[in-house]
Design brief:
408 residues; alpha+beta; Beta-lactamase; eight-stranded antiparallel sheet; three-stranded antiparallel sheet; globular
Length: 408
């Protein structure tokens, strides 16, 4: 009987290890990679603490000050199964932190004279037709580019999952972004465009088609060539299908099972950007002019940070920007930030009023957040790292003199 019990116990251990690759990773001391910064060790302690508290295998934190990359560390494991550590240049799926990138891409087209923020989206996309017998809300034609960038178009979530849409329309997978938007054109708007804001992933997916219409190129190709490359960001792509590329961090949702990678099965335009926290700092410092001339014109930069005029907010009130969740002006400067989360990913990018910028990416979800099931525990929100990191970074009054951008 004792040998049977031993065999049974062994079987249980093997089974649990197969289900949850994080077992074992949780017991190891998370490695820290990147140039040592002795005066900033508190940030290292905080990041390792977050990994342990939330049972997340890996993370990355990068900070820029006055256009210099002053801090860039990787923590824990990018690939638990192969003992591969996260490095400062390791690339993460950045989830909804893609939205400011869409906003900047559209503003670049505005600067080039190919687009106006108050152009009507479905007039621009006039060749995009709803499916036969679909009843279209007449207010749809009144939605502007600016309104969608402020989540103020009235568009909500898609009416169904991709497999469901494929089944209902009898479309062979993979479905295209254009087919998803055409299908959802029959959904009534939640409110009159411009009268309120309600977070809409569907609205931002629609804006990718606007980029393609105005640029005459696929969204991914135009953004890489005309936004990322001029900013010095070269190793970047959309995470469209399953699998991981080299130097891409693997994702581990709350279940502990490794995510297969990718973001759905949508061809030509689906998926999130995959980049490093270091490249996120290149992006933000190109916007604020920390590394020289601003990427956008002064007018477009201010439009990016302005409130939606029809909501009647003042510039110094807390509001959302073009792709940014929060914008707030103060005598010290301007704060703007964006967070993101999908299964096995939690991300944050922030520009602080004092000119410090930072990005933190995790390859797991925080306790209380179930991105796979779409659930979020409000009580657990207070334990997320973002406000703690913000406070810790804000208190630092002496930064290293080096610029790590030179070596990355």
């Amino acid at each position: 009987m004792s040998s049977l019990l031993r065999l049974f116990s062994l079987w249980i251990c093997v089974s649990l290890a197969a289900v949850s690759p994080l077992r074992g990773a949780e017991k190891r001391e998370p490695p820290i990679t990147g140039k040592a910064a002795p005066r900033l060790q508190r940030l290292d302690r905080l990041m390792v603490q977050f990994l342990r508290e939330h049972d997340i295998p890996g993370a990355s934190l990068a900070i820029a000050k006055d256009g210099r990359l002053v801090f860039a560390h990787g923590y824990g494991w990018a690939n638990v199964e192969n003992n591969k550590p996260v490095r400062p240049i390791s690339r993460f799926n950045i989830a909804s932190c893609c939205k400011p990138i869409i906003g900047v891409t559209l503003l670049k087209l505005v600067d080039e004279g190919r687009l106006r923020l108050d152009d009507k989206v479905f007039v621009l996309l006039k060749d995009l037709k709803p499916f036969p017998s679909a009843k279209v809300d007449p207010r749809l034609r009144e939605i502007t580019v600016r309104q969608l960038l402020h989540h103020a178009g009235g568009m909500a979530r898609s009416q169904g999952s991709l497999p469901e849409i494929e089944r209902r329309l009898k479309i062979e997978p993979p479905i295209s972004l254009r087919q998803v938007i055409a299908f959802d054109m029959s959904k009534p708007l939640l409110f009159d465009p411009g009268t309120e804001t309600r977070y809409s992933n569907l609205g931002f997916l629609t804006l990718r088609l606007v980029v393609e219409q105005a640029a005459g190129q696929e969204y991914e190709k135009y953004t890489i060539e005309h936004v990322f490359k001029p900013m010095g960001i070269h190793d970047v792509h959309l995470d469209r299908m399953e699998g991981y590329l080299p130097d891409e961090v693997h994702r581990y949702p709350a279940s502990g099972k490794r995510h297969p990678g990718g973001h759905g099965q949508m061809k030509q335009g689906g998926g999130n950007w995959v980049l490093s926290t270091v490249d996120a700092m290149r992006f933000v410092t190109a916007l604020d002019g920390g590394r020289g001339r601003r990427f956008l014109s002064e007018r477009s930069y201010q439009q990016m940070l302005a409130p939606l005029p029809s909501l009647g907010k003042k510039a110094n009130e807390r509001h959302n920007g073009l792709g940014w969740d929060v914008v707030q002006r103060s005598p010290e400067g301007v704060l703007y930030s964006k967070n993101g989360g999908v299964a096995g990913i939690a991300t944050w990018i922030e520009h602080m009023p004092n000119g410090v910028c930072w990005a933190a990416f995790f390859n797991g979800n925080f306790k209380g957040d179930d991105e796979e099931a779409g659930r979020r525990d409000r009580k657990a929100a207070a334990k997320r790292p973002w406000p703690i990191l913000h406070e810790a970074i804000e208190k630092i009054d002496r930064w290293p003199e080096h610029d790590l951008f030179d070596g990355k």
